[in-house]
Amino acid sequence: MTPQIEPSLRAQDLDFAFGQRKVLHDVHLELYPGEVLAIVGESGSGKSTLLRLLHGDLRPSRGVVEADDGHGRRCDLAELRQQELRQLQRSRWALMTQNSRDSLRMQHSAGANIIERRLAQGERSYARLRAEAKDWLARVEIDPDRIDDTPQQFSGGMLQRLQLARVLISRPSILLLDEPTSGLDLSVQAAVLDLIRKLVQSSAMAVALVTHDLGVARLLAQRLIILQGGRVVEAGLVDQVLEDPQHPYSQLLVASVLTL
Ligand SMILES: Nc1ncnc2c1ncn2[C@@H]1O[C@H](COP(=O)(O)OP(=O)(O)OP(=O)(O)O)[C@@H](O)[C@H]1O
Predict the structure, then answer these.
(1) Is the CB of residue 49 below 6 angstroms from any atom belonging to ligand 1?
(2) Does 18 sit in the ligand 1 pocket, CB within 6 Å?
(3) Are residue 80 and residue 181 in the same domain, yes or no?
């Protein structure tokens, strides 16, 4: 990574606890424009919690999260007013959650869900918004004729792709993806991964990708961190970590994939 480029997102010395349960310990990471950082780890290791901290939905008990506000200015998420934070979350940053039903407006049409962030960015032409929504449905492999259906009429995999269209359409400067392709069948998964890869290549989007799947990490990400028990036990270039993991847990993880 070129040293003079400023990270879009930086987390330093992060601790987080749910009540008495300490979930993250001393996490440090940087996310640069135009790169994908994979966050890998066992179930319960704190990956989703880390994304919620990076998005500003949770406050760390110690440490700082700083992010680019989309205008080249760095801000400390803890110091933003609630309204400023919401505005940035709606227009400049995006979080795709593991449970699509938590993020989608289930009573509204698929089209309305997709254009919401474009409206927050100031787009007002109904014809343009509808055309964009149809285009994005097609890009995530959903029939554009389903634009007026509500998400309640969609399958689980379709909800996931609808959520992806909803966040990608706005080309956020910081994109946080929580297991975006888990549960999709292989051909759709390949199409979705290809779509994300092309968008990252054609923009300066900075992407943090939580995944269980080291294959997905290898396909999409340049760098990787591995979490165990809320601690970063390994960090480095994906190829390097996969070829020569240093920590015993990373060695186990990599070996388990290779022997499948
Ligand atoms: N709202 C909550 N209240 C209390 N504890 C929570 C809450 N959400 C998560 N936890 C706990 O925090 C820890 C980390 O959870 P998290 O969802 O971040 O893990 P994860 O690595 O994303 O897991 P998975 O891969 O299964 O999604 C777990 O022990 C979990 O039980």
Answers:
(1) yes
(2) yes
(3) yes
Number of domains observed in the structure of the chain: 2
Q: Is the CB of 211 under 6 A from ligand 1?
A: no
pLDDT in tens, 157-190: 899 999 999 999 999 999 999 999 888 888 888 8
Angstrom distance (rounded) from CA 237 to CA 62: 27
Q: Is the ipTM of this complex over 0.85?
A: yes
Examine residue 241 and state whether it is found in any structural domain, yes or no: yes
CB of 20 closer than 6 A to ligand 1?
no
**Cα→Cα distances 178→4, 11, 123, 218, 225, Å:** 29, 18, 27, 16, 14
User: Where in the sequence is the domain holding 165, given as residue range(s)?
Assistant: 104-171
CA of 256 to the centre of ligand 1 (A): 23
- State the Cα–Cα distance between residues 10 and 66, nearest whole angstrom: 5
| In a shared domain, residues 85 and 131 | no
Residues 188 and 253 in one domain: yes
